[in-house]
Design goal:
Two copies of one chain form a homodimer. By secondary structure, chain A is an alpha+beta fold. The first copy, chain A, folds into three domains: about 90-205, Uridine Diphospho-n-acetylenolpyruvylglucosamine Reductase, domain 3 (2-Layer Sandwich), CATH 3.30.465; about 210-315, Alpha-Beta Plaits (2-Layer Sandwich), CATH 3.30.70.2190; about 325-435, Alpha-Beta Plaits, CATH 3.30.70.2740. Helix content of chain A is about 35%, strand content about 20%. The first copy, chain A, is built from 14 helices and 18 strands. Chain A has helices at about 15-20, 40-55, 105-115, 130-140, 145-150, 185, 220-235, 245-255, 280-290, 305-320, 340-350, 380-395, 410-415, 420-430, and strands spanning about 10, 35, 60, 80, 90, 95-100, 120, 155-160, 165-170, 195-205, 205, 210-220, 240-245, 265-270, 295-300, 325-330, 355-360, 365-375. The interface between A and B is large, with 88 and 88 residues.
């Protein structure tokens, strides 16, 4: 007879309540039956064995910084939190890899490898609070992804506990390997619906030079978008190329005076970590910006100044919190449609009478339009949010560039994927989690979870 | 009632015979019932619909340059050859992507995008004869992968025909996207066992400078391996870092006099496409090589000379064809175990009385030991081949870095993967190809293919 791991499990309602949600807006959260704070692989195995036997849904959680409701509680579920599995198991300098548990914070890993002259590039906006396990679950991106790639590009191997509690290793420590299906990449981005990740082997790179940066101001976002295309068309791969629209600049200005001119139409920030070639790259950026009608361009001479130039972009998220409520989107479009996306978002904001501040990873075409609204505008905000996703799809893009589907966007996944792709999702989910206990109803609308079979006395 | 596409299908025994095999050694090939040379998506759809209805195994083929028997005929199968689907559909310079049909030759695509100032990095040794579809099926690598990544790192989207003939799109044209499971990466490297790829959207990079190169000579492979570690430890990412052992150099010397000194123990070749920084990178390589007891180092001044330095490495494959028979392996180990791998291979060669010439992508730890033998040594050659894979696994590596499992290594896959991973493979195969008609018995040992149900009169 299995049981939940006694020492790691609680059913204290106050504690459960504190773990019920991630950071998504407008996502329901149910009442969990228990919280397991796993401190060992064995805790995870035991939890899944028990849940599998009893047909109880399990919601895997890390530090719950997700923005799509994928870690919110389901009624009667076990919350399986792995944030205490937070050990950096190994940093292998010669092989340029690290092995970490899923609860390690992104910035903690980045700092630890930096001390050894190495670099872990994926840098989601949440890097100071989000865990590697969560980054893997959503295949998180960030600013540096334009040059270096997203989380999945750095995952070499996983240890995963399957729905029935069996432990599986995927991938390998080697730089290359094609023995069998790419299970590693299948589990990356699967948002806890196929298994629970308990160890991650990541590839590292040699440390780069501290970045320099340049900032350009434009009268219109269209000009800024043209500058993005012009700069990338010149064959440069900047370490970041970030856009802020007028509403974002205004929100940041309200939070802190960084000297952004009032009434600016758009801001573009480029970063280069190319060392001795950084000034050359930033000069090329300045040229592109001026060619596209930039009203001013400031190029940093040293890394400290560069850091200051990036500060406005980094404060965008915080600046949105001055508003009563926010709903952050994550559409990604082909770069040539970036201007059409930003224009369309302005139309949508006007139509629904809400404010939408748009900023994001312009070099990747990945924007984070944030609907900023009063509580009595909740319906309009959600309609605007939906229209932004619809627009992203119409422009040949995707509903999510890096945040994931979770609960928030699962209805929209069916609009993005064709029927055969949806069928493949369901088949794979059914094949690897036949009882449907792993984060059911997230990503894809799976079938019933067998909750009715639950033996209430088991825990 | 379905039928095979009349205009594209032949059952002429002479033609069938010509299409029965890829380039693997020691892999059986059966007698196909028919060959479909698809010229349209519809031909592929119709073939799979028919095969699915009748439970007939289908072996997808490109230009049949594979080295693991994955494209060899099975008794009674339909060979579904897509080499005539060879159109470059689109090169989008602004988005830096190309859309190609699977039969496009790797080098053809590379040349076409180069004309537009772009670069498609994956460069398998077979690049002049292998197709993008085959590269995708095996997740092919190459020399440039050390710096740029393998085929899968450049695949953004696929059009795939599923086992039952339904057409599916995976992925997207955008730089990023996490909507749903990463079906693209699941199909990359699946060797025709999950679906037939009919269109590939690849990411491109801006063109790089024509590479410069340097060559270093050593008395022992151990010295050369230390130089690899030293060079990469210095934070350089060369565009290629290739090793040739003494037996490889001897084989090349027999083919063509390139001025390689007789009796050299090992050769290391580094390539840099870093433009103005290339001389600096190659100077660092020379430093590492001399530190590790290189007997001589030659650094090229210009791209034409660099090309000459690479010629020896490029001729390795051809030089092996001077021997009566060859069996090329593809193990990949953690870089620190490279010297142990090469040493162990020498011991294995001595034990079985065969010649093994080892060369490959030292920077990735991916070696191609080639067993060179007389026809009466076939048993010894296969035993030596098996021992090399065993050694690779013992050293923490994989049985295949870039060639794939196919038929040749399917028994070995079960040694590399754990039980849960093998189970996951079987579940996924069963989920996406329930009748088991797609390249059955390749990669994984799947169950019976339903061949007994075949209606012989259907074709």
């Amino acid at each position: 007879m299995t049981s939940l791991p006694a020492g790691a499990t609680t059913d204290d309602p106050d504690v459960l309540d504190a773990y019920r949600t991630d950071r998504a807006t407008f996502c329901p959260s149910g009442t969990p039956r228990a919280l397991v704070r796993a401190r060992s692989l064995e805790d995870v195995v035991q939890t899944l064995r028990w849940a599998h036997e009893h047909g109880v849904p399990v919601v895997p959680q890390g530090t719950r910084t997700g923005l799509s409701g994928g870690a919110n509680a389901l009624d009667g579920c076990v919350l399986l939190n792995v944030e205490k599995l937070d050990r950096i198991v190994e940093i292998d300098v010669e092989e340029q890899i690290a092995v970490v548990q899923p609860g390690v914070i992104n910035a903690t890993l980045a700092a630890a490898v930096a001390e050894k002259g190495l670099y872990y590039p994926p840098d989601p906006g949440s890097k100071d609070i989000s865990s590697i396990g969560g980054n893997v679950a959503t295949n998180a991106g960030g600013m540096c992804c334009l040059k270096y790639g997203v989380t999945g590009d750095f995952v070499r191997a996983l240890q995963v506990v399957l729905a029935d509690g069996r432990v599986m290793r995927t991938g390998r420590r080697t730089a290359k390997g094609v023995a069998g299906y790419d299970l590693t990449r299948l589990f990356v981005g699967s948002e806890g619906t196929l298994g629970v990740v308990t160890e991650v082997t990541v590839a590292l790179r040699p440390a780069t030079a501290r970045p320099l940066a340049a900032i350009a101001f434009f009268d219109t976002t269209a000009d800024a978008c043209r500058a993005v295309a012009d700069h990338l068309g010149a064959g440069i791969r900047p370490a970041a190329l970030e856009l802020m629209d007028a509403a974002t600049v205004a929100a940041v200005n309200r939070l802190k005076d960084l000297g952004f001119p009032d009434g600016v139409g758009a801001v573009l920030i480029a970063q280069s970590d190319a060392g001795t070639r950084a000034p050359e790259e930033l000069a090329a950026f300045e040229l592109s910006a001026r060619k596209c009608a930039a009203t001013d361009v400031i190029v940093s001479d040293d890394p400290a100044e560069a850091d200051l130039l990036m500060q406005g972009r980094r404060l965008a998220g915080l600046s949105f919190e001055q508003y009563p409520a926010t709903l952050v989107d994550d559409v990604c479009v082909p770069r040539r449609n970036l201007a059409a996306l930003v224009d369309g978002i302005e139309r949508i904001a006007a139509e629904y009478g809400v404010l939408i501040a748009t900023c994001g990873h312009a070099g990747d075409g990945n924007m984070h339009p944030a609907v900023l609204f009063d509580h009595d505008q909740a319906v309009a905000a959600q309609q605007a949010f939906a229209d932004v996703m619809r627009l992203g799809l119409e422009l040949g893009g995707t509903i999510t560039g890096e945040h994931g589907v979770g609960f928030l966007k699962r209805e929209w996944l069916a609009r993005e994927l064709d029927e055969a792709a949806l069928w493949s999702h369901q088949q794979i989910k059914q094949a690897l989690d036949p009882r449907g206990i792993l984060n059911p109803g997230r990503v894809i609308n799976s079938t019933a979870t067998g909750r009715t079979e639950v033996d209430q006395r088991s825990f």
